Amino acid sequence: MMVLRKEMFTDAEIIRNLANDQESSATIRQLYRENFDLLSRYVQNNSGSEQDAEDIFQEVMVAFIQLLKAGRFRGESSIRTFLFSLNKNIWLNELKRRGRASKREEKYEKNMNREVQTADIAMELQQTRSELLNTLEALGENCKKILLLFYYENKSMKEMVGELPYENEQVVRNKKSKCLKKLAELVKGNPLLYDQLKNFVHE
Fold first, then answer.
1. Using one digit for the tens of pLDDT, what is the confidence trace for 49-84?
2. 86 and 41 housed in the same domain
3. Exposure winner among 9, 83, 116, 132, fewest CB in 10 A?
4. Is 84 in the same domain as 166?
5. Is 122 within the bounds of a domain?
6. pLDDT at 45
7. Is the entire prediction scored with pTM above 0.90?
8. 149: which residues sit within 8 A by CB, 6+ positions away?
9. Considering 41, 76, 104, which residue would you say is the last residue of a domain?
10. Banded model confidence at residue 44, pLDDT cuts 50, 70, 90
11. Same domain? 98 vs 145
């Protein structure tokens, strides 16, 4: 009857096996049995999931084997202690990476929201201006021309006298004031238009 060897390697045997690709599968199975629960608890107790713990353990194994083959593990601590330290460092680095990614996503989302809001406001203002221009039609041709010259073309009173059938600047100023009051009365029933009218125009 053949007696199967029990998979119980010493730390020295583990180092030798993994560094020289000997009995690697059996050695890794032993490392898993002896260390996975401890390493997994650390990850899951520090904002990680069960899947995170499994993924990090795989990274720990790969890193450990690479360090052994590079001769960078000299056995100054137990393998269990060394694996725990690797597990901790790899997981903390992963949390930092996720934190940076989360901040980038949050910043991107805020920027996108800001751009959408800006676009919405711009469209709203454009629509409001269009509605104001349409409302001007109800004031009559003279009032429409006075308000457009003053508020949209930024003409001075002196310049407006030359384009309107009025005697002087004072007459134009009085007429503008009356037209503006008529416009305010027309848009009072629309709170948005009324508010925007106060923002767009000035006496």
1. 999 999 999 999 998 988 888 888 777 778 888 899
2. yes
3. 116
4. no
5. no
6. 93
7. no
8. 155, 159, 160, 163, 164
9. 104
10. very high
11. no
User: Do residues 57 and 14 touch, judged by C-beta distance below 8 A?
Assistant: no
- Position 70, amino acid: A
In this structure, are 144 and 93 located in the same domain?
no
Helix axes 24-44 and 79-136, enclosed angle (nearest 10): 50
Enclosing domain of residue 183? 140-200
Residue keyed to tokens 């980038």 = 104
